[in-house]
């Protein structure tokens, strides 16, 4: 079970916070960081669009990735939410251990 970081966005801080709370409550992420404002520029339906969004940074494990994606997809207002995975994240032993402990906690209770 590798530590991973998932990058996503949301259209507002309220939407991002709802996603973050759901992931943390379900123990599908050890930590979710919300960066309040960024501008995204992209193509959509043949036009160049831009929107102000909130950056969502999800710290989780490879084992929880699909369940986290399912939860985000259920809550997210976008038809195609950003879901970019940075695999095999390394860090301090203490932090990586904490991350694994927090995400795998429900598995230990079963």
List the helices and strands and how they pair.
Layout: E1 3-10, H1 13-25, E2 31-44, E3 47-61, H2 65-75, E4 84-86, H3 93-109
Helix pairs in contact: 1-2
Compact description:
This protein is α+β, with helices and mostly antiparallel strands. The chain is built from 3 helices and 4 strands.
Class in CATH? Alpha Beta
Secondary-structure element series:
EHEEHEH
Q: Helicity, in percent?
A: 25-40%
> What is the strand arrangement across the widest sheet?
2-3-1-4
* Quaternary class: single chain
Number of DSSP E strands: 4
Question: Can you give a write-up of this model?
Answer:
It is a single chain. The mean pLDDT is 93. This protein has helices at residues 13-25, 65-75, 93-109; strands at residues 3-10, 31-44, 47-61, 84-86. Strands 2-3-1-4 form a 4-stranded antiparallel sheet. A hairpin with a 2-residue loop joins strand 2 and strand 3 (47-61). Helix content is 37%, strand content 36%. The protein has 110 residues and is an alpha+beta fold. The chain is elongated. The chain has a single domain (3-109), classed as Alpha-Beta Plaits, CATH 3.30.70.
Key attributes of the depicted protein:
110 residues; alpha+beta; Alpha-Beta Plaits; 4 strands; Ion_tolerance_CutA
């Amino acid at each position: 079970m590798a530590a991973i970081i998932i990058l996503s966005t949301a259209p507002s801080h309220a939407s991002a916070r709802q996603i973050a709370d759901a992931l943390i409550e379900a123990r599908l992420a050890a930590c979710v960081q919300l960066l309040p404002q960024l501008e995204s520029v992209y193509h959509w339906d043949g036009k160049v669009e831009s929107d102000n969004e909130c950056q969502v940074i999800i710290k989780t494990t490879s084992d929880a990735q699909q369940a986290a994606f399912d939860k985000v997809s259920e809550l997210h207002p976008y038809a195609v939410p950003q879901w970019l995975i940075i695999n095999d994240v390394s860090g301090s032993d203490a932090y990586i251990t904490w991350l694994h402990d927090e995400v795998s906690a429900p598995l230990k209770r079963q």
